[in-house]
Write a structure and sequence with these properties.
The structure is a homodimer. By secondary structure, chain A is an alpha/beta fold. Helices cover 42% and strands 15% of the residues of chain A. In chain A, the strands form two sheets. Chain A has a six-stranded parallel β-sheet with strand order 2-1-3-4-5-11, sandwiched between helices. Chain A has a six-stranded mixed β-sheet with strand order 7-6-8-9-10-12, sandwiched between helices. In chain A, α5 links the parallel β1 and β2. At the A-B interface, α4, α5, β2, α6 and α11 of A face α4, α5, β2, α6 and α11 of B. The structure holds a DNA duplex.
DNA sequence: CTGAAAGCGCTTACAG
DNA sequence: CTGAAAGCGCTTACAG
């Protein structure tokens, strides 16, 4: 592969001049520029980004550590992150932690070793020592979706409280009184926060949230299945289940079906995170939709601000309830484009 | 951030010795090793991968260029690729082409600039000039899923022919005679191949595949919707539609629903690529399942073989039909774990 | 406007 | 076993 030396030789100039042409440095004669460009062309020369990074101490690369790529929510997040990063001249390397702290650690380490310019992370299980250390050491970092309290790191996330209140109101209106929740890991902010919001919303209706109705999941489908089976085995099973992510909702649906029961007749179901498939499940699933694309873009902007020396900003966007048929037929809002139709707009 | 010099100074040895310790070079005294390790520990030193790559001319990184991350099939492929790569000591950088040739080109260029050790690609729209050039220039490369004929590049893919034949038999058995297909871009191998296999299978039943029953899609949901609407507008609409990927099947389902029609009563539907959600759609969708994880792993192994100087091997794995209810109720094989149950095993 | 030279952080023959 | 030195491919003050 041709190097800058080859180009210099072919153009009859020094490597310094070649570098200047390549970097649009103003003080280059037209003549030199033309000859360099011609040489670049004929040699098919492409600058070595590795060498450039070593020299300039910047990689123009962002690291994104997410907890589960197979979760459509995170897939969409990753996509919007890459899109915005590309627009700003950065590449992104994704590290998939699969909700495993050890894997998360592996990716953070690898990314740091590669000297990425900044790190976007949605911490699994309370983060890792390495991550905390990096944050304290001043590695540009931004949390998306989930975060770790007590760190001076901007957070870009959706606030689901208002939407969860809307959901509880929706369930109540449809006659459901015994409401249960499938929680995510308590060590993740989204895990604990959604349970709290749910509990508070129930309290507004004077309803308690008994421990038996709080199932401990891990944001994966299998745990949704397991927890739901537990609910069904209860002497008095809940009438409605709220899965705090889409994969656990899928597991819950599996479990309910496996017993020959039907949603919503035998049990109502709702999920946090809306995904395209929810329109087509049997029945279509009521969900709380996050502005995922906007979250990803805002997170990248915050991180790049931080990297380029501008003050980064935390951003909190509202989530909204999208009612479908999985909680009952209370209202006629399950038309074909209900995917787009918020029942109530939560502008918290 | 501490550099190798700092470690050398702290340990009272030369940087060469530090490097040897770090790389497990045998000729280092126990004493030196201990002191270096201690210094590494106290300084929290981590080798700069950028510098190492520049020096060794290897990045221990694989590039993966896929056509659409939002497609669950590719998401799963990406995940298995990363997993196997990690097991072999490599990282992977994903480039999402979104089925756009220009984006594909962007990613290939970026990846090449970063001097990845090898490239795994599922070419969109017949590939890009850059990709062809790289292949000819000897960049280690392996095609996954889709490929470009005429290049000396190993291909790791699933052969769907037998499964498509099984599908046509299944549809025929259920009484469907007018069968249509939603094709992918003709410039992709999977796009053209699936149509051909479908046509050949129909021929075995003496059935033609009229042009009106071949809809041109682009592997995205929207095109599935559009094509299906066209089918429904025909004087004699097809009785069954075979979408050649899961997103177009989703679009088809949308279109059928939007007219107030039902699957399979008004129109049968089947898809290429099986995904977890197909078990839960209304109705559950009959699909051709690829051994996605195995494809990803085999592709990585082939690429790493190539990179490390071993002869790489092309691999073709069989796909299989998973019958559910979307083509009709012909057989009682729609139990709850039908996701795992092949109707007929195709070992082509 | 241009080039010689230093240096980014490593690895690795080479000499001892 | 160890260190001095060269060199990977760039960029960028510095001097002219």
């Amino acid at each position: 592969m041709a190097s800058i030396k080859d180009v210099a030789a072919a153009a009859g100039v020094s490597v310094a001049t070649v570098s200047r042409v390549l970097n649009d440095h103003p003080s280059v004669s037209d003549d030199a520029r033309t000859r360099v460009l011609a040489a670049v062309e004929t040699l098919g020369y492409r600058p070595n980004a590795v060498a450039r990074s070593l020299r300039t101490d910047q990689t123009r690369t962002l690291g994104l550590v997410i907890s589960d790529v197979l979760n459509p929510y995170f897939t969409e997040l990753a996509r919007s992150v890459e899109e915005e990063a590309r627009a700003l001249g950065y590449s992104v390397i994704i590290g998939n932690a699969d909700e495993r702290p050890d894997l998360q650690d592996h990716h953070v380490r690898t990314l740091l070793d590669r000297r990425i310019d900044g790190l976007l992370v949605s911490p699994a299980e309370g983060g890792s020592p390495l991550m905390l250390e990096a944050a304290r050491a001043g590695t540009p970092m931004v949390f998306v979706d989930r975060w770790i309290p007590g760190l001076d790191v901007p957070v870009v996330r959706a606030d689901g409280r208002a939407a969860i209140r809307d959901l509880v109101a929706h369930l109540h209106r449809l006659g459901h009184r015994r409401l249960a929740i499938i929680a995510g890991p308590a060590a993740t902010t989204t895990g604990s926060e959604r349970v709290e919001a749910f509990r508070e919303a129930l309290a507004e209706y004077g309803a308690p949230l008994p421990d038996a109705y709080i199932g401990q999941g891990d944001f994966q489908a299998e745990s949704g299945r397991r927890v739901t089976e537990g609910f069904l085995d209860l002497p008095e099973p809940p009438e409605a289940v709220f899965a705090t992510d889409n994969l656990m909702a899928l597991g819950a649906l599996d479990a309910i079906r496996a017993r020959g029961l039907q949603v919503p007749r035998d049990m109502a179901l709702a999920a946090f995170d809306d995904i395209p498939w929810f329109v087509h499940t049997d029945p279509p699933i009521t969900a709380i939709a996050q502005p995922t694309g906007e979250l990803g873009r805002a997170a990248v902007r915050a991180l790049v601000d931080r990297i380029e020396g501008r003050p980064p900003q935390s951003v909190t966007l509202p989530a909204r309830l999208v009612a479908r048929r999985s909680c009952g037929e209370g209202r006629a809002n399950d038309n074909r484009d209900d995917n787009q139709t918020p029942v109530q707009r939560s502008t918290s």
